[in-house]
């Protein structure tokens, strides 16, 4: 399934520009389920199992990734832009990007031209530009328009001791795991939602969760790992190699305490590595799903990811495998 993950990560799909990701997912799941596409472009799937459960279970992940959108083109052919989703300015400068099949570089004033104060701070996004090699506004406009999306250009690669580096691991990992489940034989009827526009306010999940109205929802995600040089204790948040992350609370959601405890109990019974998030930070589609319609009990199962929302996220293959094991062990406990 890592071949599937590689293919998913290579597809560009910002919030509001998920069409290519959606088409790929539909190609993979066709013939294995019933599905529909809603007005925001999310894919709602019903997978028939061998039995109809007492509870309606929904599993969700989001298709979109953080990226950039072009806001203006200067007279000398540079592109001004803003971020789509939460991207740190420090993760942007000097990065190679791709826009409409054209390569470019995100630039700012050279270090030799910076004043003393400027040298001590990261430039604002508004001070940066994208250089696609155009020499004039007309030349740039021949390939780029305002409102076009630009993407980090980053190869998918294996490195170190079982690590993967790629863009869009948040949340193509969740999409990969859901495709795998949909293409398998399931014991119980299950709903799956591939959501749009998570990175700009959980917008797709608001609609899909209202349509499905599940009793219990499992959100598959990637989350911030901070097991970095000089970071200690709870500030590490979660770490690579210690298994999936099951949260008790984040910036958008207080998770169902019984489901949280159940996940750890199931992991212990099946000798599966598992960890929790030691900082109250971030958020995911659970924040919308929990309060949509009549509400849903929610649990998030996330992959720890270093350098999330950047050109080069890093995950551990063992965490992917342990997340898969946890899902297959946990799901049967949710249906009755």
Give a brief rundown of this model.
Helices cover 25% and strands 24% of the residues. The protein is an alpha+beta fold and 336 residues long.
Describe this structure in words.
The protein is α+β, with helices and mostly antiparallel strands and 336 residues long. Helices cover 25% and strands 24% of the residues. The chain has eight helices and 16 strands. It has helices at residues 2-10, 19-29, 137-141, 169-182, 203-212, 257-269, 286-289, 317-334; strands at residues 34-37, 43-47, 57-62, 67-73, 79-84, 96-99, 102-107, 129-131, 149-152, 157-159, 163-166, 190-195, 216-224, 245-246, 297-305, 313-316. The chain has a seven-stranded mixed β-sheet, sandwiched between helices. It has a six-stranded antiparallel β-sheet with strand order 5-4-9-6-7-8. Strands 10-11-16 form a three-stranded antiparallel β-sheet. The chain starts with a helix and ends with a helix. The mean pLDDT is 95.
Poorly predicted runs are none
* Number of helices in the DSSP assignment: 8
Q: How large is the share of residues in beta strands?
A: 15-25%
How far the N terminus sits from the C terminus, by CA atoms, comes to 29 Å
Which structural class matches the secondary elements? Answer: alpha+beta
Cα-based radius of gyration, to the nearest Å? 21 Å
> Overall 3D geometry?
globular
Count of β-strands: 16
Largest sheet: 7 strands, mixed
Element-level helix/strand string: HHEEEEEEEEHEEEHEHEEHHEEH
As a percent range, the share of helical residues equals 25-40%
Report mean pLDDT, rounded to a whole number: 95
Strand order of the largest sheet: 1-2-12-3-13-15-14
Oligomerization category of the chains in this entry: single chain
